[in-house]
């Protein structure tokens, strides 16, 4: 079995950032990556210094070229399906039958967005149906904007998005559990609430044109913010015993340590402030902390 100081599960921004800190610390690192980052559908990534507006795949390509310059970093394409063992001797199993060993493991596998099964939704996801105003809001400033959200998050979401546009409509999918006070404020601000399911999203190659509602009415729209449910990509995290917080993110301390000794988690799987910058930052910190732990062990 190949033996590494650290096995990194997920080779996108967070995993590569951790690998860079570890490679520069002359650690033997294996990055295992399925090649399916969550932002692959978006043409331009924003709000990350030096790479604003660059394609997500281009940022990854540059990062991968840079980390693989370090001779102690190895890369395997594949999906991990299990992690067993304990601090100092984890066994990581990859689809296809290979198992590798690591003294530490970093979970950097991200989240899966659970897209609703509305025709046309997927084609617009990351282009004109978006999740985050900091990533894409500027490009849609003052445009005709919808917000698709569970009612209990509607008020906060509407308040946030009103920073980028006042041309707003709220889509609540038949859920009318808004607090009275919130409802009054929303109506006072002249925001219309549409409270029925969306039948279809009509678009041209991902550019949203209008929504067809359940009663066949039409809602013209330039952009739709969608608050979607998410799931851990690495489902095996439950069997290894890493605790999660209420939002479903892995519980970590400020250095990325999970509740299982020797396993760290970085990027989206552990941090609700979802961005390339957060992924890179948390990976960088965890890489340095693991190196420090290994120095303490070996010195
Ligand atoms: C549509 C969309 C647009 C976005 N736009 C922006 C933006 O403009 N600016 C910005 O800052 N942020 C943006 N984000 C957020 C940003 O993309 C994420 O915060 C960031 O990608 C998180 O990085 P990560 O490394 O944690 O996870 P990801 O980038 O999601 O990568 C996870 C990696 O792990 C791999 N993986 C998963 N499971 C396994 C497994 N079992 N074994 C091996 N590998 C596995 C996957 O294949 C993938 O390569 C966007 C997100 C979405 C969904």
Question: What pattern of helices and strands is seen along the backbone?
Answer: EHEHEEEEEHEHEHEHEEEEEEEH
The profile of the biggest β sheet is: 7 strands, mixed
- What percentage of amino acids are in beta strands? 25-35%
The CA-CA distance between the termini, in Å, is 25 Å
Structural class per helix/strand content? alpha/beta
Beta strand count: 17
CATH class of the largest domain: Alpha Beta
Q: State Rg.
A: 21 Å
Reported CATH architecture of the largest domain: 3-Layer(bba) Sandwich
> Roughly what percent helix?
10-25%
The pLDDT mean sits at 96
Bound ligands: flavin-adenine dinucleotide
Contiguous low-pLDDT stretches (5 residues minimum) are none
Apparent shape = elongated
The gist of it:
This protein has 299 residues and is α/β, with parallel strands linked by helices. The protein has 7 helices and 17 strands.
Structure overview:
With 299 residues, this protein is of the alpha/beta class. It folds into two domains: 2-112 and 229-298, FAD/NAD(P)-binding domain (3-Layer(bba) Sandwich), CATH 3.50.50.60; 116-226, FAD/NAD(P)-binding domain. Helices cover 25% and strands 29% of the residues. The chain is built from seven helices and 17 strands. The protein has helices at 13-23, 56-67, 121-124, 133-136, 151-161, 180-188, 276-298, and strands at residues 2-9, 29-33, 73-77, 80-86, 89-94, 98-107, 111-114, 129-130, 145-148, 168-171, 192-194, 198-204, 207-213, 218-220, 223-226, 229-232, 263-265. The strands form four sheets. Strands 1, 2, 3, 4, 5, 6 and 17 form a seven-stranded mixed sheet that branches. It has a five-stranded parallel sheet with strand order 8-15-9-10-11, with helices on one face. A three-stranded antiparallel sheet has the order 12-13-14. Helix 1 (13-23) packs parallel to helix 2 and helix 1 runs parallel beside helix 7. The protein is elongated, with a radius of gyration of 21 Å. Flavin-adenine dinucleotide is lined by residues 9-15, 32-39, 41-42, 45-48, 79-80, 108-110, 113, 125-126, 131, 135-136, 233-234, 267-268, 274-277, 279.
């Amino acid at each position: 079995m190949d033996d590494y100081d650290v096995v990194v599960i997920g080779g996108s921004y967070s995993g590569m950032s951790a690998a860079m800190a570890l490679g520069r610390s002359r650690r033997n690192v294996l990055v295992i990556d399925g090649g399916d980052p969550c932002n692959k559908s978006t043409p331009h990534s924003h709000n990350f210094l030096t790479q604003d507006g660059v394609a997500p795949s281009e940022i990854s390509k540059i990062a991968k070229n840079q980390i693989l310059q370090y001779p102690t970093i190895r890369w395997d394409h594949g999906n991990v399906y299990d992690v067993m063992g304990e601090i100092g001797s984890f066994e990581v199993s990859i689809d296809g039958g290979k198992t590798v060993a690591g003294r530490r493991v970093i979970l950097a596998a991200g989240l899966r967005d659970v897209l609703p099964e509305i025709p046309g939704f997927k084609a617009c996801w990351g282009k004109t149906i978006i999740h985050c105003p900091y990533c894409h809001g500027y490009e849609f400033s003052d445009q005709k904007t919808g917000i698709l959200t569970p009612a209990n998050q509607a008020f906060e979401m509407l308040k946030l998005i009103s920073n980028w546009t006042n041309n707003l409509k709220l889509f609540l999918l038949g859920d009318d559990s808004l607090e009275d006070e919130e409802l009054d404020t929303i109506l006072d601000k002249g925001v219309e609430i549409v409270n029925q399911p969306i039948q279809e999203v009509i678009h041209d190659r991902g550019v949203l044109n209008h929504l067809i509602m359940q009663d066949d009415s039409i809602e013209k729209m330039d952009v739709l913010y969608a608050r979607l449910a998410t799931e851990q990509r690495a489902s095996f995290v439950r069997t290894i015993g890493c605790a999660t917080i209420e939002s479903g993110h892995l519980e970590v301390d400020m250095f990325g340590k999970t509740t299982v000794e020797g396993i760290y988690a970085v990027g989206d799987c552990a941090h609700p402030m979802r961005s390339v910058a957060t992924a890179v930052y948390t990976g960088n910190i965890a890489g340095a902390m693991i190196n420090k732990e290994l120095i303490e062990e070996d010195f």
